[in-house]
Amino acid sequence: MNLSVCLITLNAEPTLARCLQSVRASADEIVIVDRGSADRTPFIATDFNARFIRHPADAADARALALQKATRDWVLFLAADDELSPALQQELVALKTQPLTVSGGLVNVVRNFDGQAVRFGKKFPDPQLRLAQKTAACISTSGQLTVSGATLTLAGELIRHADRALLANPPPYRFGAALANHLFRGGLTRGALGWQISRLDAPRQP
Fold it and tell me: Dihedrals φ, ψ of 159, to 5°?
């Protein structure tokens, strides 16, 4: 498996280096489509020998361009605030030496707030299609990655570093849904963090 790691960035300076460091061992190519960063994002990309493409468009169009520009047989889509766990890093390296008979791979995404991994709640587990054979992959008009064919589920986790400020100041939420999350989605046994996550997972619909 030859692997292109694809990212869409916009002022990703605080998190980009951590993300790219975690793919050093598995990426044969890094493709970054940048939507107009005004910080050090381009310089960080250069430090990691990434192919950097400026393309001030919406996220869906940028993802489609990243897929188009990737030159390897497989693509891994990440966000700048993602980080491959050590187990996922090792798993991807191992997959590079194996013939794959599937078209894509699901990865469980785990939210992390300043070192606090959230392995409970409405959004856990959260398997997402992130790995795809390029010839079987498609980006929808909403920016969603899809594949034609079977998928496998990887064992390693993808860490999503989230803003800790969201815990204390969540967006407007539905109290009834938050209470249900707290009682039935594991929040009750996690103390203050449990209630914070229960609220965060019950957003009020616009």
Answer: -90, 125
